[in-house]
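Entry 14. Structure prediction run on the chain below.
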Amino acid sequence: MAVPSHISPASTGTGATQSTAGALVQVILLLCAGTTFWLIALGSPRNTVTDWGLSLWRVQSAESQLRSLLRRLGPEPEIPEGWDGTNHKYTDVAPERVCVFLSDNRTILSVDELGLSDPTFIRRKTPEIGGCEYGFSLAYQLNRLWTIRHGYRFFQHDGHPITGRGGLWNKMIAVKHMTQDTSCDYLVYIDTDAYIRAQEYSLWDMRRRWGIHDGIALALARDVSDADGGWNTGFLIMRNSAVTAAIIDDWIDCPDSVPGCDAWNFKPPGDQAVFSHFIMEGLQKRNVVAVLPCMEATGNTLLSELGSGCNGTIVTHNWWYGKQALAQEAISMTALHMMRLLESL
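Output returned:
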């Protein structure tokens, strides 16, 4: 221990002895106080709500606290061995440069507006709600939970109509807008009736699992409901680049520039049909598109029970058949993540 500067090591006599004793008493008291503080702190249950080890000297925001907790949850994502065994390059990006977005004009319902405060909600209401605002609001919150867990940015855009097109085209204005945001390296578009079911998977995990390397501009799954081999545009992973921006422009401009493309201006499935029949083939020839497995990246439990082979095990999409189960599934998934959170404490 260092000798206090006001005490000379060579001092002798009563005064020096008293000064030395007094200084030692002060040091001992400080050591005792410090030891007591740390024993109390370390011996007490860890304050996992504020992540005590990180927030001892500063208060974390509620979102940061939630992220700290969610990152402790399992299970570990399953990534195939040899996923990087090709000549393709995979570059991870900072979480804040991943932008997740949706396009919808509807108001997000609160917990009370949803009726979740009623303990009979699942038993009495969910079979009849058919998705609508209930399902949208629940899926919205699950997708927010995923972005918080992995540190991504989340955007909700209003649907903006395109002159001479039906409502199914409204999302394309939001998609085009996001491709112009240079603060985003990767874009994830999610339909309002879809949600991330396996929330342990980050975008980086999805990319490695599904082969979305740096040369891929856009990734999506085949739409099981289309007998003519359509593609589901309700969940899109896009690398934000000039190539992707050009793809989106061609997609939007198709009805005005390609013969026959305008047949889908108002006819369902609108933009999805245009992509499937006029855009996708060219992207495959250029090797800039990744095909996601239907079992993992679209579909839902009801469709799977019908033998579609599309369960939506990582990304669930409750289109046309499945909306009636969206609320039930979303509530179940919320309960699952809450229970996992409690188990981790």
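The chain has 13 helices and eight strands.
Filed with the rest of this week's runs.
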